[in-house]
Amino acid sequence: MIEELKTFVAVVEYNNFTKAAEAINMSQPAVSQQIKSLERMYDTVLIQRSHREKKIIITPEGKILYKRAKEIISLLREVKYEMEGYKKEFQGIIRIGASYTIGEFFIPKFLGEFTKAYPKIEFDITIDNTRTICKKVSDMILDIGLVEGYFNCDEFIYDAFKEDILKLAVKKGYIDKGQVFKKKDFKDSVWISREEGSGTRQELETFFREEGIVPKKIMVFGSNYSIKEAVKHGLGVTLTSEAVLNEAIELDEVDIIRTSKEYKRKFHYILPKGKIHSRLSILLVKMLKELNVK
């Protein structure tokens, strides 16, 4: 039963029988047979196959089974750890997802401290935008997410663990240093932004609304480093995390424009609601609350 469920999960996540078979080292006929076995067991169609279009569609019943199968597999993995003596000492792998600012500027230092306390714990780190991390936590592809953007509070157990300050940055000499932000000075500016689904993009859009800005042009970059470099080289203006800008500020490569109010946001950890959380996830949350990582 458990092997059939693992096979079914692989087919859903790869959305392809052949790719799933390769990933779990089985033949495609064997994969198909295990899926059919599950369909007979539950007397329903889990996956609709279109041979002409060479694609599969997960039925509503299949989506229910996928969700529960992930929970069962996660629980069995946790039982295995405990039965092998993991109660005596924390060991194993924790799958962490982090949005870009957290992944680039917070995670390395935090995990350095964490590893000192728990040297036998290993990490599988995924760095992506907030929307993607939330989806992977909800689907139990990740054990825990650390995000900077907005998310659906009803789907997760969550709490804030750090405050982040956002700064308005421009190319060196773009306007007089120390000048307070005035909308008229930026009415024709190009705004440098992250992609849709990014927490930093959400904060920039909040800034636009609160300051009454209708941007004429937005230039999108997929990383914090490229945003900082774009501003440094005069491609436009941005609002981003102070952590992204600190090095450029120290090297006197960009200017910071004072705003009428301080723009802040919270970093949150998220755990899937209604699911079984691993002991390692709970331990990580405990450390997040205890460590004072600047």
UniProtKB/TrEMBL annotation:
Keywords: DNA-binding, Transcription, Transcription regulation
PROSITE patterns for the chain: HTH_LYSR
Transcription as UniProt keyword: yes
InterPro entries: LysR_HTH_N, LysR_subst-bd, WH-like_DNA-bd_sf, WH_DNA-bd_sf
Entry superkingdom: Bacteria
Gene Ontology terms for molecular function: DNA-binding transcription factor activity; transcription cis-regulatory region binding
Signal peptide: none
All residue ranges annotated as the HTH lysR-type domain in the record: 1-59
Protein's UniProt keywords contain DNA-binding: yes
Family: Belongs to the LysR transcriptional regulatory family.
Stored PANTHER family: HTH-TYPE TRANSCRIPTIONAL REGULATOR, HTH-TYPE TRANSCRIPTIONAL REGULATOR CYSL
Protein name: HTH-type transcriptional regulator CysL
Species whose genome carries this gene: Clostridium cylindrosporum DSM 605
Lineage of origin: Bacteria, Bacillati, Bacillota, Clostridia, Eubacteriales
